[in-house]
Amino acid sequence: MGPRHCPSPCPHHSKGSGSEWEEVTGRPSDVRIMAGKVKWVTDIEKSVLINNFEKRGWVQVTENEDWNFYWMTVQTIRNVFSVETGYRLSDDQIVNHFPNHYELTRKDLMVKNIKRYRKELEKEGSPLAEKDENGKYLYLDFVPVTYMLPADYNLFVEEFRKSPSSTWIMKPCGKAQGKGIFLINKLSQIKKWSRDSKTSSFVTQSTKEAYVISLYINNPLLIGGRKFDLRLYVLVSTYRPLRCYMYKLGFCRFCTVKYTPSTSELDNMFVHLTNVAIQKHGEDYNHIHGGKWTVNNLRLYLESTRGKEVTGKLFDEIHWIVVQSLKAVAVNASPSLTSSTANDRILKYNLINDTLNIAVPNGEIPDCKWNKSPPKEVLGNYEILSCAFLHRPGARMLMERGGYDEELAQGDGADRELRSRQGQSLGPRGGRSRDSGRTVLTTWK
Amino acid sequence: MLQEESDLSLVIAQIVQKLKGSNLYAQLERQAWASLQRPEIKLESLKEDIKEFFKISGWEKKLQNAVYSELSVFPLPSHPAAPPEHLKEPLVYMRKAQGSWEKRILKSLNSMCTELSIPLARKRPVGEQKELLNKWNEMGTDEPDLSLFRPVYAPKDFLEVLINLRNPNYENGDSLSFRTHLGLIQVPLKVKDIPELKEFFVELGLTTGQLGIDDSTQVPPELFENEHVRIGQKVLAEQDSAAAQQYIRQGSPTALRAELWALILNISSQPEDILYYEQLKTNVIQHDLLVDSLIYKDVKLTASNDDYYFVFEDYLYQVLLCFSRDTSVLGHFAYNSASPPRSYIRGKLGLEEYAVFYPPNGVIPFHGFSMYVAPLCFLYHEPSKLYQIFREMYVRFFFRLHSISSHPSGIVSLCLLFETLLQTYLPQLFYHLREIGAQPLRISFKWMVRAFSGYLATDQLLLLWDRILGYNSLEILAVLAAAVFAFRAVNLMEVTSLAAAEAVLADLSTLKVMPLLQIFLFATVT
Lengths: 445, 526
Description:
The structure holds 2 protein chains of 2 kinds.
Chain A: H1 18-25, H2 31-35, E1 39-42, H3 47-55, E2 59-60, E3 69-71, H4 74-81, E4 94-95, H5 102-105, H6 107-124, E5 146-149, H7 153-162, E6 168-172, E7 182-184, E8 211-215, E9 228-231, E10 234-238, E11 243-247, E12 251-254, H8 269-272, H9 276-279, E13 292-294, H10 295-306, H11 308-328, H12 342-359, E14 382-386, H13 394-400, H14 405-423, H15 438-443
Helix pairs in contact in A: 3-12, 10-11
Chain B: H1 2-20, H2 23-35, H3 46-57, H4 59-73, H5 84-88, H6 92-116, E1 121-123, H7 126-134, H8 155-163, H9 194-200, H10 225-238, H11 241-247, H12 254-264, H13 271-286, E2 287-289, H14 290-301, H15 313-324, E3 342-344, E4 355-357, H16 383-396, H17 411-425, H18 427-435, H19 440-449, H20 458-471, H21 475-487, H22 489-493, H23 498-504, H24 513-523
Antiparallel strand pairs in B: 1-2, 3-4
Helix pairs in contact in B: 10-12, 11-12, 13-15, 13-16, 14-15, 15-16, 17-18, 17-19, 17-21, 19-21, 21-24
């Protein structure tokens, strides 16, 4: 979250508070109390949001009034930040998305961003972009082979023919909740995305929806014979320097049906897709627990059955992927705020609570000059994912030392960034080597 | 001195007798024969050399573990002339009560059978066998009509039986005194008080490191956790059951737990064990038992709805259906006050030659039974290993939670221990709850019968079960139950009905077990 219009990173000013402003304008003192309350707007009628605002004693206003905090739907965000209809936020306004959040949520943009990020690092000679003898990235190999359709159709066909018995997954770029996803194992199944396909004559190029197609990973980790995915919440308070937090209480979503890589089940979405929206309609969907586990359960299970090291490595790598993806790009769209079970409601309420505590500390009026480095006590269930210092494999070592190093490290890291920034020109976004810090190089290999 | 010696030789004789029939004995014999090839084995000192060889190769350790296992499981005979019933249960009135309870259960099962016109057992037609084999890994997707089946009994039915237990030789007197027990259990069994518990559970004391307390994120791991993990790895390397049991009193690191439990329970997955499990699976495929439906229903009602265990639904069928058919489980009835129900081949009622045990393992499942298996799925994902571990846990511990006996780890003693602790150390709370018609045992009984499975968060439950294994006793369940009441005492003092008391204690999923136990035992002023 952050005010949109500060073009450069906010230096570490001391917190601006409402009281300064009041003194300058000489307002009567009793207005000070009212003026101290954050004014909020939202266009999403969800109790997990509204309850959190109300419990802080914030004041609800409409969007035409003077507001401090606006929790917007994706559509509204687009309007606010669009070239034609958009407007400039003022210094005391915060919204819940960065302007270019769709760079992360649209699958094609995400893929483009990661591919470009990797190339940039390679060009700079960054050790992060190192490859092994087969040309695979050592540290940045976290996206399976992916192509955009219809743009890369021919490239895809070439790749497909190399291993014709493999399965690929087709995902529409702009949709969520598992809509429109399907699996293929024959070229004929995606004929209509071929650029010069005859069958596409009645569907013009411009209305043909963009898809990404990726190599399907058909040996996923199974628990109880079922496939699952992870729903993790990440809060980004600033991009430069990158400050992000991962909510400790993420969860896993299980398929209701046992996983089988058999080709006859390719059409059975209940086997392959874990989105709740799809699983909800399966016969076996259970409304009490919704097929979910907390990430802590997952951790316990994996540590018990696979060992602590492997589990630690898994979670480190997850954090790594999150941080690298953020670096590669900008922001995300709205997480689902619909709660499907009672536990879910509690989780999301607490999530928003912790989020607000970090983004709007002490319920003070937002100020773009804020330090944005909240004290540990307000983190709640978030933990700091420091970008600057989270380099594997050394990160694990650092995190094991009592877990306090991250904050210290982050402080150091941010300083180092600033120092390096002053010394160098601002390069293309995301690619700046904070990695030139000495500690990084010694913790690799 | 002489008496002790003869007792000891009796015990040795019995253990030797038992082990002679075991697989380990055959393996040792084979190893001994094979060792004759070795250069260091000399004819003149054959015995010593072979002993030395066993020591070095680790076979002696295996034998030690087996002996230790026997000692842990089998009660020592009190007297060479004691009849076998005494091994099951020395007190006559308890034996009688267990006997009548069993009759009731069996009657209930039989009448369900007759009402629904379903045979207790039937052979499956070939088509059905094939089908079951195909979906062996996903029996959870089956949706047979189970609406007509009811659990044979629920814990609260069992509680009523225990409440009515009386020792005919014990005269209470009508007048109330400070010795009067105000709880529901009215039999005079000896239970430990807090000083005795402190001694028994000495490793849970305030000055000893614990997993579940001293491994929390605020505590630097150098203080306790790292060293404890190191010791655990050493114990595993030594493969010493007794050492593992001592070690685990301070809790097991999550990564070592599966192996440690297997070591303590003396389970090693030999090919014979896997084969045995496969045979049980074949039995399931070929024959359908009435109890299968009961198991099915239980899993659907309990584990499938649990936040943590729903994922493992299919494993539960694979374990419990095989368990019902495992006749080796019958062996535990030698020291269980319960006896396996008998049934007769159709038309041959009363004829001993046609008597069979039903179900084949002699254990009739009740509502919540599958929750004994569920937590184990977090540790073992290989079905035959999971099966072995569960079976051993059952014949060592869980059976005591639903049979009537005077054993200190039996459910009757646990109930009495719980009530006594509460009455002695939280008398105001106890009295208040009793006054409002909320006898504490009515709430805590279900926790203890299930060994808290399904009530605590899984990581906490596993820490609790670590201690059950470590102390080879279930008494910790009663202590924890009392500690929970102590923890929520303030809220409980304000309730005015049983329902409200239940509500205060409905959700235990946020409790941290070890701090509760430690505070209750070691930090409360008594």
